[in-house]
C-alpha cells in the first residue's frame, strides 16, 4: 500500500505532510489515513515501535531528577489490567458456580 506525501494546510494552521504530524495535530477526518500510514508492515517495525515507546516511557517517568512513585504505579496498574483481561474467561467461568 503506497501513500503519497503531500503538504496539507488545515483550518487550525497546522502545516506539513500528514505522515510527519503527531497524533495531536491530526484532524479527525484525517485519522484513518494517519493510522494506515503508522501501521507497521514488518515485524521489525513492531519491535522498533515497542522499543521507542518503552524508551519514551522510561525517560519520562524513571530517568528523572526528582522521581516519584507515579511511573511505577502506572506500570503496575497496566500489568494488573492486562492480567485481568487475560484471565477474564477463567474468572467468568468460576463466578457462575454456586457454593453451597
Automatic annotation (TrEMBL):
Keyword annotations of the record: ATP synthesis, CF(0), Hydrogen ion transport, Ion transport, Membrane, Mitochondrion, Transmembrane, Transmembrane helix, Transport
Family annotation (InterPro entries): F1F0-ATPsyn_F_prd
A single MF term (Gene Ontology): proton-transporting ATP synthase activity, rotational mechanism
GO CC field: mitochondrial membrane; proton-transporting ATP synthase complex
Pfam family, one: WRW
BP GO annotations: proton motive force-driven mitochondrial ATP synthesis
Protein's UniProt keywords contain Transmembrane: yes
Compartments (UniProt record): Mitochondrion membrane
Region (Disordered): 1-24
Top-level taxon of the source organism: Eukaryota
Transmembrane segments: 69-88
Presence of keyword Aminoacyl-tRNA synthetase: no
Family: Belongs to the ATPase F chain family.
Name the UniProt record assigns to this protein: ATP synthase subunit f mitochondrial
Organism whose genome encodes this protein: Dissostichus eleginoides (Patagonian toothfish)
